[in-house]
Every structure is written in structure tokens, then in C-alpha cells.
Amino acid sequence: MPPKIYRWINIFGNNCRSFSYITSSPPQPRVRSNRNTTVGSHTNTSEFLLLAFSSHQETLLPLFLALYVAALLGNLLILVAIGSDSHLHTPMYILLVNLSLADLFFTSTTIPRLLHALLTGDRTITHSGCLAQVFFFLLAGNVDSYVLAAMAWDRYMAICRPLHYAAVVTLPCCVKLLGAVWTGTTLHSLLHTFLTARLSFCNNHALPHFYCDVYPLLQLACSDTSLNFLVALIEGGSTILLPAVCIITSYAYISTAVYRARATGGVRKALATCGSHLCVVGLFYGTLVGVYLQPPGQLNNWGRDQDLVATIMFSVVAPTLNPYIYSLQNREIKASLARIFMVNRN
């Protein structure tokens, strides 16, 4: 082949290769895998698994069903007894009404979902349902704590300052106090729910619990939880310790007043008015403090058997026993219930 023709063929071939390079699509960049992307997402968690009580369903189902029915019946009877008797519309019984409402929230937030899991074997809970449990559980628990503190202050005023009781502990004062309690605990619950909602979670969505709580969720999170732990330690810890300090201080003054009285009548009066409240406080705080005020190193072991038992005691057993403890030791409530049953019988 002549050299001139060979040279033109080479030029034509080079031009074709250049044209094909220009018209072809450029190479696509490699997409690096990101744990926060939509595919294989760790942030858009659709559901969690509640693994507690995954065995012995035949025994646990009737047990928790009986506890739930007893809690509903007892707290509703307290509400009916106080609501139907105008003589019981006093600050002490208004506080008791709010305690019963908080106990109804407490049990209804966790037990129905647990009963569903024990009955059907479905242990999944949606992300939104989990956050709803976090909110209402924190709300009910904190209302319980502050109402118990307000009841301790009420007993302090009745025993240590009886002449000032009617002037200080009034119904408007009680309503304002309860309004502040419900407002403050709602804001507290919203804060922790919002901080939990912003977290991203790893592939492991199994919670070693029978409801969604803040600390177990923090253990599953893949994102930074330092702010959550800081808020839980400072703000959350204060919401537990502040009512506890008020209760301890009130009963310290009550004990001093009873000791100074030295009279048998004074001791009996104090025991009659404070006995039921002390039983409820001991049952509630004795287990609550053991669960939530643990050293930081033990939070990684959340879900142990002793933690589950303690959680059941303050979130299920205590709200169930509260109305029966108060009604059995309170003559006015028993009389009101007796009148209701007599009217219905006639």
C-alpha cells in the first residue's frame, strides 16, 4: 500500500476514535456506601423488636391481663368515688385523682402492647409507635413522681402546720400546682422524645424490653448520643431527684413533729394519714431509683432480669396497687363507694 494512502487511513481512524470518545457518556463516579442513605438506611427505621418475655407466654398472658384489669378497675373506681361525692372535692383528693390518671396512662402505655405480643407473637412496634410510648411513659412517670411529692407536702401541712392548712392548701392553689406539673412534665417528655427521634439506628433493632424506653434506644443508636445522655443525666435526673428530695424533706419534718408529740393519739393520726402514702412512695421510688439512677458503666447491661423486674414493679405493679392501698385505708373513699353500690342496687 502506498505510504500516502496509509497515512490518510491512520488519520481517519484517529478521528473516529476521538469522535466516539466525545459522543459517548462520560464515566460515572463511584458512589461510596453511606450508612445514612436511603438504601440500606439506618435512619429511616420502620420498626423495632421488643424481645422481653419471649417465653412462657401461657403463664405471662393471664398474669399481665389480670394486672391490667385490676389497674383499670381500681383507678376508675377512685375517679368515680371522688367525682360523685362533692365532699371529696378537696385538695388531697384532687391530688389523688391526678395520681389515678397518671397510673391509667402508665399501665395503658405499655401493657396493651405487651398483651398483644403475648397473644399473637408479634413483637414488632413501629418507629412512630415507639416514640409515642417514650412520650407517654415519661409523661406518666413524671406526673406520678410530682403528684407523690405534692401529696407529701399536703401531709406535711396537715400534720406540722394544721392551723395554716386551710389557708395555704386551697383548691385554686392545688389546681395551679397540678397545671404546672402537667405542663412541665409534658415539655420534659417532648424534649426527650425529640432528642430520641433525631437518632439514627444500626441494623440491630432488637430491644431487650417490653416497651420502648430512652436508655435501651440509646444503646441501639449509631449516631452521636452524647447530647441525649447529657440531657438524661442532668435534666432527667433532676426530675427524679427533685420530687424525691421533697418527699424525704416532708417526712423528715413529719417524723420530727410526731416525735415531739409523743402522744399515742398523735402517732396514730400520723400513721393513719401517711401510711398509705408511704407504702406507695416506697413501692414506686424503691424500684424507680434502682433502674434509672445506675452508674454509667451499668447502662450497657440494660435489659437484665433484675432491671425488668424493677421496671415491672414501678410501671405495672405500683399503678395497680395504688388505688387499693388508698381505698382500703381511707374511710371517705370506702363510704363513697358504698353509697354508689347501694344506689345501684336499689
Structure description:
With 346 residues, the protein is mainly α. It has one domain: Up-down Bundle (Rhopdopsin 7-helix transmembrane proteins). It has eleven helices and three strands, in the order αβααβαααβααααα. It has helices at residues 3-23, 57-84, 91-120, 127-160, 162-168, 171-197, 214-220, 226-261, 264-292, 305-328, 331-345, and strands spanning 47-50, 124-126, 206-207. The chain has a three-stranded mixed sheet. It starts with a helix and ends with a helix. Mean pLDDT is 80; it is low at 1-43.
Furnish the topology, listing elements before pairings:
Blueprint: H1 3-23, E1 47-50, H2 57-84, H3 91-120, E2 124-126, H4 127-160, H5 162-168, H6 171-197, E3 206-207, H7 214-220, H8 226-261, H9 264-292, H10 305-328, H11 331-345
Parallel strand pairs: 1-3
Antiparallel strand pairs: 1-2
Helix pairs in contact: 2-3, 2-10, 2-11, 3-4, 3-6, 3-10, 4-5, 4-6, 4-8, 4-9, 6-8, 8-9, 9-10
